[in-house]
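Translate structure to sequence.
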């Protein structure tokens, strides 16, 4: 028997309202067991509030006069209650906000697929139960970093669409829109790793430091781990962590390639996956014999969403585009390979982005070779950093394996694409 749509909507609204009431009751018992004054009833009242929103919406779904009157009446009752709450020096309006969400279950169930009211219910459950976690996280978050995030959202969501999409800068084969888009994408990927390392997994072990640090900056991670290795006794976990950071770097470059150039991404996919797998396998070998109780380390470096950091990256990106264009024009493929090797001893993201987004007088194979050569030379740079900051006794294994990965990557780049 097929039930009418209104009956199904009515049942869904009732169930969600009832479950929300149970969740509010559980919240009171867990966080306010001493409270004897209930706001606007208990489970039954929450259920009736959901049904009231449903009925008042159905009565006048076009102008919403009756539904709005119900909302105002409910808010007025809360305002009277809230005055008394303020006298008792209690100012929270959390349960009122939950009640407002419950009041919208009816219209949401009618107007949208089931996933919409269900998602709202899940968020209610999550936010009520995550009080301790959210409070702890908010106390640790640096207010300046939130301000920086707001500025970057402004520059990305508001200013980015306004930038010219045509090449308006002389001698630069790329539009301002694509330049800043590249900055936004790289900053977002780095920011994800930065936040994870700093706030979500601040003390989960050295190996996790390497894994997450690789999404942010494998070079900075290598330097931090090598310095720590010099201070400690020789431990295989340091080698495992350094190699894990480089393995993650290969995966990071695959993502960047697919965002900006699918054709090149398909070419680098197989070799980068193979080198990433090789790095993880060797890292796991050392991980098994290392000290798994070692505390995590903070990866040094500025917030990648800092405007200064972003503008410096944009400037490096533009410089790399201009240098790559000049090298390919005046020195050809041979010059590009030498330049790619040298670029690997700097921040390789601007150089690789310049290859993925720019338009040059070179073919697909040459771009593939340049990307792999720069990634390989960057591994050799990290090998040198590991040896310099860690010392031969502490980081020679990391030095050897990073050198092998670097030389192998360069060799594949010189050989040409697999596909």
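Result:
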């Amino acid at each position: 028997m097929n039930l009418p749509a209104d009956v199904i909507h009515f049942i869904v609204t009732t169930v969600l309202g009832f479950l929300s009431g149970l969740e509010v009751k559980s919240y009171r018992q867990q966080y306010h067991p001493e409270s004897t004054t209930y706001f606007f009833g208990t489970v039954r009242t929450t259920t009736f509030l959901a049904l009231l929103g449903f009925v008042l919406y159905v009565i006048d779904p076009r102008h919403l006069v009756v539904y709005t009157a119900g909302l105002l009446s409910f808010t007025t009752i809360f305002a009277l209650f809230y005055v008394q709450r303020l006298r008792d020096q209690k100012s929270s309006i959390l349960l009122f906000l939950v009640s407002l969400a419950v009041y919208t279950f009816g219209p949401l169930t009618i107007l949208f697929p089931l996933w919409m009211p269900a998602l709202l219910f899940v968020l209610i459950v999550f936010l009520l139960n995550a009080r301790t976690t959210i409070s702890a996280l908010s106390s640790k978050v640096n207010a300046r970093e939130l301000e920086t995030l707001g500025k970057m959202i402004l520059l990305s969501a508001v200013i980015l669409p306004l930038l010219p999409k045509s090449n308006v800068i002389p001698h630069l084969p790329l539009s301002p829109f694509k330049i800043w888009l590249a900055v936004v994408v790289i900053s977002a990927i780095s920011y994800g790793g930065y936040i994870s390392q700093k706030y979500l997994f601040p003390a989960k072990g050295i190996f996790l430091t390497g894994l997450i640090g690789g999404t942010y900056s494998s070079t900075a991670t290598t330097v931090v781990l090598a310095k720590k290795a010099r201070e400690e006794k020789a431990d295989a976990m340091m080698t495992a962590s350094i190699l894990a950071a480089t393995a993650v770097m290969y995966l990071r470059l695959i993502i960047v390639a697919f965002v900006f150039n699918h054709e090149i991404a398909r070419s680098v996919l197989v070799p980068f996956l193979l080198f990433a797998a090789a790095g993880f396998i060797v890292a796991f070998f050392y991980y098994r014999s290392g000290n798994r109780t070692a505390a995590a380390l903070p990866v040094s470096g500025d917030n990648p969403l800092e405007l200064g950091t972003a503008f410096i990256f944009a400037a490096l990106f533009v410089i790399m585009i201009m240098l790559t264009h000049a090298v390919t024009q005046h020195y050809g493929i041979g010059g590009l390979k030498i330049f790619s090797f040298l670029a690997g001893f700097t921040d390789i993201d601007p150089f690789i982005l310049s290859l993925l987004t720019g338009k040059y007088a070179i073919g697909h194979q040459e771009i593939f070779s340049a990307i792999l050569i720069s990634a390989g030379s960057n591994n050799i740079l990290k090998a040198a950093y590991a040896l310099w900051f860690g010392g031969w006794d502490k980081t020679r294994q990391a030095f050897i394996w990073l050198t092998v990965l670097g030389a192998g990557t360069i060799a594949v780049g010189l050989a040409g694409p697999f596909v």
